[in-house]
């Protein structure tokens, strides 16, 4: 059985907002627009003029040649003031996260260059939003939320303002729910803890925050949502195992890691298929199916919701 197999869900009520699927489910599209704007305005207060409206764009940038690395954003959008935003959520610990976001922003600017004799380049600004569930090694002394720009080392004044970065290290946020003060704390708390909640806390059970919780609630997912969630769950598990293998075995044993990952992926899929078949027969309890399949009880309940279509 996989260690920490239910990392993505702990109590099985709400989706983890730190997952790709959870972030897009709750903050993506028209349904999540209001909360996305409120969250960003809370995080960026005093840094940029408030966002009034946003337009979501294609999150995939293929590059101009076959050799260029494909860029895939979690969320990519522009606002009413022609500013662009690339939003990246990273659960698994990796190095150079800020540098990667900088390279993505540079790709955005380079693709805005137009051919011609006159060099009149006035590109729209882009703000990279980097949210991690680990302490970033390149920013050891920075607080939970930090803002980054290109400055002059002589005057400490902003030299280039078309590229900026908001960095949020969720592991540095440790406030309890009764200590929250304002929307910045509220959204930090939800990003860090949504999957741990077993109900809507009383202070959030109102018209402002209830829609966010309802989008995150597994019981409101349809079959297509659950299929996407299952795929994201398996991808996350494989990424976690890949990193664990890399730490334990080193890069010299990279080929063996691929074999291990293939076996793990097949094992997870086999457990899910077994649970689905037993649930469809409707003979055994979900508790018994969890034992037989080797899946966490919360996972089996989510599969039951997907099958029933409730």
* Rg over CA atoms: 21 Å
What is the number of E strands?
8
Largest sheet: 6 strands, mixed
How many domains make up the coordinates?
Answer: 2
Q: Give the ordered list of helices and strands.
A: HHEEEEEHEEEHHHHHH
Global structural class: alpha/beta
The 3D shape can be described as elongated
User: In order across it, which strands form the biggest sheet?
Assistant: 1-4-5-6-8-7
- Treating each run of at least 4 consecutive H or I residues as one helix, how many helices? 9
Catalogue the unreliable spans. Answer: 1-11
Mean pLDDT: 81
Estimate the strand proportion: 5-15%
Straight-line N-to-C gap: 29 Å
Helix content: 40-55%
Can you characterise this structure?
- The strands form two sheets. Strands 1-4-5-6-8-7 form a six-stranded mixed β-sheet, sandwiched between helices. Strands 2-3 form a two-stranded antiparallel ribbon.
- The chain folds into two domains: 20-219, no CATH class; 221-308, no CATH class.
- The protein is elongated.
- It has helices spanning 20-27, 33-43, 97-111, 183-193, 210-216, 223-249, 254-281, 286-293, 297-308; strands spanning 54-56, 60-61, 71-72, 75-79, 84-90, 126-132, 145-151, 158-169.
- By secondary structure, it is α/β, with parallel strands linked by helices.
- The two termini are 29 Å apart.
- 41% of the residues lie in helices and 15% in strands.
- It has nine helices and eight strands.
């Amino acid at each position: 059985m996989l260690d920490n197999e239910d990392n993505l869900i702990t109590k099985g009520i709400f989706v983890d907002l730190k997952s790709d699927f959870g972030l897009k489910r709750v903050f993506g599209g028209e349904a999540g627009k209001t909360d996305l704007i409120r969250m960003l305005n809370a995080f960026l207060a005093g840094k940029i003029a408030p966002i009034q409206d946003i337009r979501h764009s294609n999150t995939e940038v293929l590059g101009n040649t076959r050799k260029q690395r494909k860029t895939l954003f979690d969320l990519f959008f522009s606002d009413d003031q022609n500013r662009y935003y690339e939003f990246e959520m990273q659960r698994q610990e990796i190095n150079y996260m800020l540098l990667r976001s900088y390279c993505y922003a540079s790709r955005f600017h380079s693709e805005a260059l137009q051919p011609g004799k006159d060099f009149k380049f006035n590109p729209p600004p882009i703000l990279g939003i980097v949210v991690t569930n680990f302490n970033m090694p390149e920013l050891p002394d920075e607080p939970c939320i930090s803002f980054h720009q290109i400055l002059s080392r002589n005057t400490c004044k902003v030299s280039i303002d078309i590229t900026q970065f908001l960095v949020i290290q969720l592991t540095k946020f440790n406030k309890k729910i009764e200590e929250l003060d304002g929307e910045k704390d509220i959204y930090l708390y939800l990003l860090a803890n949504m999957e741990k909640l077993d109900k809507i806390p009383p202070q959030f059970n109102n018209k402002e925050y209830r829609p966010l919780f309802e989008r995150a609630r597994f019981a409101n997912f349809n079959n297509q949502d659950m299929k996407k969630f299952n795929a994201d769950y398996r991808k996350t598990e494989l990424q976690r195992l890949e990193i664990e293998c890399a730490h334990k075995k080193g890069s010299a044993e990279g080929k063996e890691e691929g074999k291990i990952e293939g076996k793990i992926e097949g094992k997870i899929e086999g457990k899910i298929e077994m649970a689905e078949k037993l649930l469809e027969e409707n003979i055994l309890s979900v508790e018994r199916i969890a034992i037989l399949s080797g899946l966490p009880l919360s996972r089996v309940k989510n599969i039951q919701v997907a099958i029933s279509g409730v």
